[in-house]
């Protein structure tokens, strides 16, 4: 982050007491990790990941994980610690992050996975893990068919354009006999109250963010994203969550001759823009009480 940009962002921040954890949420490519590092260096803190793709050990470049140089500047936790073939849920993350809340120096929790922040500050329903055979069956069903089998209460709580969310709801009702909405009605007590933290969310103007997304994917390619994906080619399984990270299916198709690099770049960029739009919608709706800062500075 350039010094001028860092200073302008810094001026938008609320007061950061020594005894308060910091939460930083925002859409992809908005500059969250850079701000977390700035706060860690100026105020002290351990940076903790709250991004679902950055937990996997196989993806540093394609998931925009902090670089080795950045990790050397402050202590980082929950980055790249999960094997590619492991399933990692919001429940897994919440169980791992909970004991880290008492860290000294303070935890700085940063990422773009809204469900992680929601579970942390609003509680999480204790839903049993989905059996592999149920997930395998769900993978074979079209999105409209999945939607057709869900109850109206659940449909009102999820983004029906997001296949992962719809499929999860279908898996829950199929495996447990109870709807996702029913499970969520019995949510646990939150681990952290927003009022007991410094909670920051990035507001990112659409056109500004789309330009950054386009440039960042090209930067990933320059940094070796294609080679990173190529190392996982023999282990590629599109049903595993790790391989659903944006950019992975597209670059894998390019490696296998099913797509040109230009097409892969275009499709990955479009997918990232769509993802960012869902994130912006989520944060605006669910994080109204958080301190909002303007990413475009």
Keyphrases for this structure?
Rossmann fold, globular, 3 domains, Helix Hairpins, tRNA dimethylallyltransferase activity, 6-stranded parallel beta sheet, 297 residues, alpha/beta, tRNA processing
Structure characterization notes:
This protein has 3 domains: 3-124 and 192-205 and 284-294, P-loop containing nucleotide triphosphate hydrolases (Rossmann fold, 3-Layer(aba) Sandwich); 132-184, no CATH class; 206-277, Crystal structure of tRNA isopentenylpyrophosphate transferase (bh2366) domain (Helix Hairpins, Orthogonal Bundle), CATH 1.10.287.890. Helix 4 (90-97) packs across helix 5, helix 11 (206-223) crosses helix 14 (261-286) and helix 13 (248-255) packs antiparallel against helix 14. The chain has helices at 3-12, 32-43, 68-73, 90-97, 114-122, 132-139, 143-148, 152-155, 163-176, 180-184, 206-223, 225-230, 248-255, 261-286, and strands spanning 22-25, 46-49, 76-77, 107-111, 198-203, 291-294. It is of the alpha/beta class and 297 residues long. The chain is built from 14 helices and 6 strands. A 6-stranded parallel sheet has the order 3-2-4-1-5-6, with helices on both faces. The relative contact order is 0.17. Helix 3 (68-73) links the parallel strand 2 and strand 3 (76-77). It is 47% helix and 8% strand.
